[in-house]
Design goal:
Blueprint lengths: L13 H23 L5 H21 L7 H27 L2 H8 L2 H13 L5 H18 L9 H25 L10 H19 L1 H10 L2 H26 L4 H8 L2 H11 L7 H30 L1
Helix pairs in contact: 1-10, 1-12, 2-8, 2-9, 2-10, 3-7, 3-8, 4-6, 4-7, 5-7, 5-11, 6-13, 7-11, 11-13
Length: 309
């Protein structure tokens, strides 16, 4: 059984802050990505984003060289496969359905993650944790309900699949970094992140090489600035923080804190993008935050009780 680290203090810990930071920068990525896709293909944009992020991390690591082990290569390949699959299905689903439907459906990963983690680890969260997760999903529904819901279609089905795959990806990061796959073996978080990003970027490059070349050729100063934001903050920091945090806590806790991502996305869209949000939207944001904080306390007590046993 994998031992989980428990924060020394109750409430918000440094691990939680790292996850919230990742959720915040990923919330910002929606605005930057939307702007960039106006100039070139989505696949090309993601190929550049992930390959550049991997290169930046490699240059940082070059200052303190560490060899890539076979275990790290295999672990990174496994994580990259789930990452690329999630983004492929999720992006296609978003294209085929409304932003309202996709935003609500993808939040189901908050529920799917503890279920899948429970199947893998044979350890289930208390019932009230699932109640808090449902509360967070309801908050997402309130947050994005201002645009109204559209009739379900193929895109909605793909978003349900994407929500399950995102949960699988979150759990797989734990399995490939500190689970049975790497039991008794030393793995380096930075090495795994570098390889994961390069593998995922290569997948998108193979998927659309022409679109990638066109993106690199047509981006102007503004587009490269946005790409820099995506690479440095949304990818290098976001992925490093998430991979580090998931080795310190449970996938269920990570998924719950990721539930604040829509809040950050809306706040950034309002403050930077100039979009408007009604009082109902702000109410939804408050419900998400309250539900997540409630769930964190439940998850923390459950892990403490597990270790005591």
């Amino acid at each position: 059984m994998t031992q989980l680290n428990v924060p020394s203090k109750k409430g918000i810990s440094s691990v939680d802050i790292a996850i919230l930071g990742a959720a915040a920068v990923w919330g910002a990525s929606y605005l930057a990505s939307r702007e960039l896709t106006h100039f070139a293909s989505l696949w090309g944009m993601m190929a550049i984003r992930f390959i550049l992020a991997g290169a930046v991390l490699y240059l940082i690591r070059f200052l303190r060289p560490v060899k890539f082990s076979k275990t790290e290569v295999l672990s990174s390949l496994g994580i990259a496969v789930t990452l690329a699959t999630v983004m492929t299905v999720e992006t296609t689903g978003i294209y085929l359905t409304s932003a309202t439907n996709s935003g609500l459906i993808i939040s189901l990963s908050i529920l799917f993650t503890p279920i899948i983690e429970g199947l893998v680890s044979k350890f289930w969260m208390p019932r009230m944790f699932y109640a808090s997760a449902i509360g967070a999903i309801i908050g997402v529904g309130v947050l994005i309900s201002g645009n109204g819901f559209t009739e379900p279609n193929l895109g909605d089905l793909l978003m349900i699949v994407a929500a399950v795959l995102r949960a699988v990806h979150t759990v797989s990061q734990g399995y490939f970094t500190h689970g049975k796959f790497t039991k008794g073996k030393k793995v380096d978080t930075t090495n795994i992140t570098i390889l994961q990003l390069v593998f995922a970027g290569t997948f998108f490059l193979i998927l659309d090489p022409i679109g990638t070349a066109n993106a690199a050729a047509t981006y102007g100063l503004r587009e490269w600035f946005l790409m820099g934001v995506l690479v440095i903050f949304c990818t290098v920091y976001g992925f490093m923080a998430m991979l580090w945090a998931i080795r310190k806590t449970s996938a269920s806790r990570v998924a719950l804190l990721q539930g604040t991502e829509p809040v950050w996305a809306v706040v950034i869209a309002v403050v930077i993008g100039g979009e408007l949000m009604s009082a109902i939207g702000w109410l939804g944001a408050a419900v998400i935050i309250a539900a997540c904080y409630w769930g964190l306390g439940i998850e923390n007590r459950a892990r403490e009780a597990r270790l005591i046993k």
